[in-house]
Amino acid sequence: MIKKVLTPATIAVFFWGLGSLLLNGYYYEYLRPYMYVSLAVIFPIMIWNLIKQRKEDKNQGTEEFKHSISRMLIMAMIMIIIFFITKQNHI
User: Fold this and answer.
1) How far is CA 5 from the centre of its chain?
2) Which one-letter DSSP state was computed for residue 30?
3) H/E element holding 61?
4) Rounded mean pLDDT for each run of 10 residues along the chain, 91 residues in total
5) CA geometry: angle at 10 spanning 65 and 76, to 5°?
6) With the C-alpha atoms ordered 7, 10, 13, 15, is the resulting torsion angle positive or negative?
7) In angstroms, rounded to a whole number, what is the distance separating the alpha carbons of residues 15 and 78?
């Protein structure tokens, strides 16, 4: 059970969130560049993972790529809804 929870990805997300909280608390002016760098780092990783899943789907005949795209679209919609609900005027 613990092996499934403590993966390198979850540890990286934990430290990313911790860094975000620390920047927000102590150095608020650096929070926006931190988020931009985070996006610049995560997009290539995400694209590489999707290419890998697509190749595996073609070889094995599974639909994991299709499910990944669906999950990403659902999360994007949820994030957009939360963004408009919270009225981010300071950004």
Assistant:
1) 17
2) G
3) none
4) 72 88 88 88 88 88 86 91 76 56
5) 50
6) negative
7) 23
The span from the CA of 2 to the CA of 72, in Å, is 25
Rounded CA separation 36/46 (Å) = 15
Q: Which two tokens stand for residue 14?
A: 């934990």
Q: Which residues of 55-65 are buried (b: 16+ CB within 10 A; e: fewer)?
A: eebeeeeeeeb
- The tokens describing 41, both together, are 């780092």
Question: In the structure encoding, which two tokens stand for residue 76, read together?
Answer: 């994007």
pTM score = 0.63
